[in-house]
Design brief:
The chain is of the alpha/beta class. It has 14 helices and 18 strands. The relative contact order is 0.14. Bound molecules: nicotinamide-adenine-dinucleotide.
Length: 452
């Protein structure tokens, strides 16, 4: 059997191995899922939810071990790795309850007709996930698919197979056989899964892979939910609280070493306040501590692999050659590390302002007037998240409403209150998850009508 070995990006050491699937095996895996699915669906919404909620105690007990695996496999600081695993355990029950409520049948009627709107499973679901939140991404894809009555085959990222497997083991122990299976491998295994006999493909990852998946899924008119990359702008208006804006800019550019889909990748600051804002950003950047995520006190870990490091440094180098000034970082560092980097003098002719970077780089560009800020922020094929900082909240809200992102934060990050979807606009998504509107995308709507 081929194996897939996972390496620690901070040290290069092997963390462990899993059995890898070959593309030719995938047909059998999907056939087992298809055979198991009708009985799973027949259990009903509440019983399926109860099976999943029974996994909470196991997930809670396993959270410290899973959290350590997260850090060792992809590099984020240990408190964040453990926090992610614990959050998965602690949020599961409420998430499942929200999904149940979203999927209940609805009755519609007038004087003559009673219609019941059912939300049925599609059948088999492929869930393909990235490495940057290697526990929460599987959880967000797999839970609604299972509660809706689908059988799921999870293909986690080849960078983080161990933590995804450990998370899935906790769930699978409470489910009938083959209702949740995990297959390991790289893009070729993911591709075989999309092309196999699955009805729904739930994907979180890059825009480029999303396009390939959509093409492959088109053949069988398979349903797709694609959560893709971003190039999130932060707009700092002239009346912004500069300390708060700089704190957010640094936190959201360098969190998870910039390897977050809603990282701040472009900062637009009003010319009149640019100098004091940049000064504050540099001050805060200096206080960051870079190192292996397992070391206490570290705030910025490594890039997930050498390929990602190369991509980030190439974008920085190309911007520098085109006239950008590097005020912090920028230089090469040993191993897979890229130091927190601050660039000014950037413009939209540079790839670093157009392509997703996915690294610890804060790019700051000046604007004059709110109209120019909106034009620059919207000058991107992406539309995942965005943020606007300004003390006059009504004005900041007006600017926010003109932005093309799916999620905009005002004086804060872009995530919404409970019940909000996680949604990308433009080329950052096609379909979405979370919140009642997201959960419903994991089910086929059918209606049955009778005369009154
Ligand atoms: P990726 O697209 O390289 O890989 C994602 C997954 O797809 C992996 O499991 C990979 O093996 C698989 N894959 C690769 N090629 C495939 C193919 N042809 N068919 C089927 N599967 C295939 O992305 P990544 O590097 O793992 O993750 C980073 C990307 O994910 C970034 O673009 C980031 O913005 C995005 N992301 C988006 C969100 C969101 O919510 N919108 C959340 C997290 C990450």
């Amino acid at each position: 059997m081929p194996t897939l070995t996972s390496f620690d990006p901070a040290t290069g050491e092997a963390v462990g191995s899993v059995e890898a699937a070959a593309p030719a095996d995938i047909g059998h895996v999907v056939a087992r899922a298809r055979a198991a699915q009708p009985a799973w669906a027949a259990l009903g919404l509440e019983a399926r939810a109860a099976c999943l909620k029974a996994a909470v105690a196991d997930l809670r007990a396993a959270a410290p071990r899973i959290g350590e695996l997260v850090t060792r496999e992809m590099g984020k600081p240990l408190p964040e790795g453990k926090g992610e695993a614990l959050h998965a355990a602690e949020s599961l029950a409420a998430e499942v309850d929200e999904i149940v409520e979203a999927l209940r049948p609805q009755v519609l009627e007038d004087a003559k007709t009673v219609t019941t709107l059912h939300r049925d499973p599609f059948g088999t679901c492929a869930a393909i996930t990235p490495w940057n939140f290697p526990v929460l991404m599987p959880q967000q894809s797999v839970l609604p698919a299972l509660v809706a009555g689908n059988a799921v085959i999870l293909k986690p990222s080849e960078e983080t197979p161990l933590c995804a497997q450990a998370w899935a083991d906790c769930l699978a122990a409470h489910l009938p056989p083959d209702v949740l299976q995990v297959v390991h491998g790289a893009g070729d295994v993911g591709r075989a899964l999309v092309r196999a006999d699955v009805d729904l493909v739930v994907f979180t990852g890059s825009r480029e892979t999303g396009i390939m998946i959509m093409k492959d899924a088109a053949e069988g008119l398979k349903r797709v939910i694609l959560e893709l990359g971003g190039k999130d702008p932060l707009v700092v208006l002239d009346d912004a609280d500069l300390d708060a804006a700089a704190a957010f800019a640094v936190r959201n550019s360098f969190r998870n070493a910039g390897q977050v889909c809603v990282s701040t990748e472009r900062i637009y600051v009003d010319r009149r306040i640019a100098a004091p804002f940049v000064e504050r950003v540099l001050e805060r950047t200096k206080s960051l501590v870079q190192g292996p995520g397992t070391q206490p006190g570290v705030s910025v870990g490594p890039m997930v692999n050498a390929r990602q490091k190369r991509k980030v440094l190439e974008q920085v180098e190309s911007a520098r050659r085109a006239g950008a000034r590097v005020l912090a970082g920028g230089a090469d560092a040993p191993g897979n590390f890229v130091p927190p980097t601050v660039l000014v003098g950037v413009d939209h002719s540079m790839p670093i302002m157009r392509e997703e970077t996915f690294g610890p780089v804060a790019c700051i560009m000046e604007f004059e007037g709110d109209d120019e800020a909106v034009r620059l922020a919207n000058d991107s094929p992406y539309g995942l998240g965005a943020a606007v900082f300004g003390r006059d909240v009504a004005r900041a809200e007006r600017v926010a409403r003109r932005l093309g992102a799916g999620m905009v934060g005002i004086n804060r990050g872009c995530g919404g209150a409970p019940g909000s979807p996680w949604v990308g606009a433009h080329q950052s998504g096609y379909g979405f998850h979370s919140g009642p509107e997201g959960h419903r995308q994991f089910a086929q709507v059918r209606i049955a009508s009778r005369a009154k």
